[in-house]
Structures are given as structure tokens and as C-alpha cells.
Amino acid sequence: MDKRNVPTSRTLPEYLKGCLWSYDYSRLDVEADFRCITTNILIYGDLKSIHWLFSNYSKENIASVLLNPLKGEWDARSLAFWSGYLQVAPDKKRP
């Protein structure tokens, strides 16, 4: 991840908890857990969460998550939508 695009606060806002329900929210780090945070916000997030994501990370960093999606995390519709939106082609070998 490009270090220039890391949020200044290492604390996630409380309203993101709904997107990250399967993780120990208090232990998530905005830099170290970038891939899982981004993945879950793109799949489960509402407009406020999506806005936070795009306000805190660059489109290039977000697109990198789609290029190599976390195995077993993505549903086909979400992956197709966000790939189209960010104009990237995910690695088809990674479901």
C-alpha cells in the first residue's frame, strides 16, 4: 500500500463496525489490515462507509484489492460491480 495514502488516524470510526462484524474491531489497524477493511467495506458498506474508504485511501490502493481479491471473501456481483467502477480486471484464478 502506498504510505502517502494512509489515514492520519489509526482508529476506525464506530460506524464501520457493521461492515467488519466478523473481526475483532478493537484490534484492526487501518494500515496493517487495509485489505480486509477495504474488502469488507466494498462488500457490506453503506454510502457513509464507502465515502470514508475513498476519502482515506487512494483509488489505486483500493483497486489493488480488486486485482488480487481475498479468496473466499467476494461474491460475484460485488466483485463485478467494483471492478467495473474502478476499471480493473481481477485475477480470475482467485475466487
Task: Give a structural overview.
The chain is 43% helix and 0% strand. It has four helices and no strands. It is globular and about 35 Å long. The model has no long low-confidence stretch (mean pLDDT 87).
What is the topology?
Elements: H1 34-44, H2 47-56, H3 59-67, H4 76-86
Helix pairs in contact: 3-4
Attribute tags:
95 residues; mainly alpha; 43% helix
Rounded to an integer, what's the Rg over CA atoms? Answer: 13 Å
Number of helices: 4
Main sheet overview: none
- N-to-C order of helices and strands: HHHH
Strand content: under 5%
Structural class: mainly alpha
Q: State the helical fraction.
A: 40-55%
Low-confidence stretches: none
Number of strands: 0
Spatial separation of the terminal alpha carbons: 22 Å
Overall shape: globular
Mean pLDDT: 87
Short account of what is shown:
By secondary structure, this protein is mostly helical. It has helices at 34-44, 47-56, 59-67, 76-86.
